[in-house]
Amino acid sequence: MKVLHLNTMLRGGGTDDQCVKVVAGLRSLGVDARIMGPGGCEFCSQLQSFQIPQIATPPEGPLKIHFMRAVAREIRTGGYDIVHAHHGRDYWPTFLSVALSLRRPKIVFTRHLAKSPRSLPSRFFLLRLCDRVIAVSEFTQQVMKEGFNDPDSPEPERHYRPRLLGNTSKISVIPCCIDTERFYPQPPSAQLLKEWNLSPDHFIFAVVGGYDHPRGKGQREYLKAAALIHKQIPSARFLIIGRGSLAETLKQDIQQLGLEGKASLAPYSHDMPSVMNSIHCLVHPAIGTESFGLVLLEAFACGRPVIASALDGIPEAFHVVGRGELVPPENIEALAHSMRNIFENGSSPSEAERKAMHIQVKTEASLPVMASRTYKLYKQILNHA
């Protein structure tokens, strides 16, 4: 089996990360899987670390003509059975490249977002032109099959999410997974605690993720919840780990909420396993759209409890282990109550409990599991040819 994965980004976001990891997993199963995309990008080093062959594409050119010509040439000469794209911006170039190639490989798309494609042509023709669409969660599948509306949400992107038209039986669910060989229970990192200016005596809550305008991923709500409980839990510290354009706003919130010395911003870390092992509880107060919630699995795999918004596909990731609490999104009082509960009742999973949490994630949501499910789907598509 020979598979070409198309990716015009390779900048290191969640979609790129999952694309690279599923290709690595497929190769471990003996599939000749490759990635075609721009060379010299931020994420190309990840391809090298996984020993994934990359076919570099030229600059896209007007209307991505140069890109599509290069892809069509590769499909025509490479003998691929399947062409698989991940970013919404790559769906139509994939269709057109396959048409230009004069070959007939199967076409697969993965939908990593908790919404249908934005353009009307995609919503009308996507299912007609491809062989299979992979949804990364049951919720994402629901949106594509039925649509989803939340008109009362303060988040405009949640108001209206239309469905896809066509044969929805082509939509299959293969949940996102994590590398459980990297994320597993370890002792806290003394170096990280030093960098955070914290000690082993502190109980560390942390939000991990970007915080861009206008509202980030719930970091401001998290700080408001922290302000309600920090006096009741003197040892508690509240980290915001990441980067983004809201940094100055968050610093002002810390000052105005009386959280100086209790809450702080920590820079984005490339060593997320050490981060997860050095905190006591991950808080994921998401407020926008979210297809799944990989960061929950990373915390669970390291044996840490999670407090997360019961929003979109997040409960699916939470229920893989279920250690912690789900809270209504944007409910600051409920978030504060759950943080206090975790401190009082679930603050210290034993080593045996942490190992059991890791095994649960490894069994249900590890990279080999995702690769095996994808390989099985490929075989189904080819057998039906």
Descriptive tags:
385 residues; six-stranded parallel β-sheet; 15 helices; 16% strand; globular
Task: Describe this structure as you would to a colleague.
The protein starts with a strand and ends with a helix. The protein is 41% helix and 16% strand. It is an alpha/beta fold. It is globular and about 70 Å long. The chain has 15 helices and 13 strands. 47% of the residues are buried. Strands 3-2-1-4-5-6-7 form a seven-stranded parallel β-sheet, with helices on both faces. A six-stranded parallel β-sheet has the order 10-9-8-11-12-13, sandwiched between helices.
The major beta sheet can be summarized as: 7 strands, parallel
Beta-strand percentage?
15-25%
Q: What oligomeric state is this?
A: single chain
- Specify the number of helices: 15
What is the gyration radius calculated from CA atoms? 22 Å
SSE pattern, N- to C-terminal: EHEHEHEHEHEHEHEHEHEHEHEHEHHH
Mean pLDDT: 95
Instruction: Please give the share of residues in helix.
Output: 40-55%
Low-confidence stretches: none
Please give the order of strands in the largest beta sheet. 3-2-1-4-5-6-7
- Gap between N and C termini, in Å? 14 Å
Form type: globular
Quick one: how many beta strands?
13
Structural class: alpha/beta
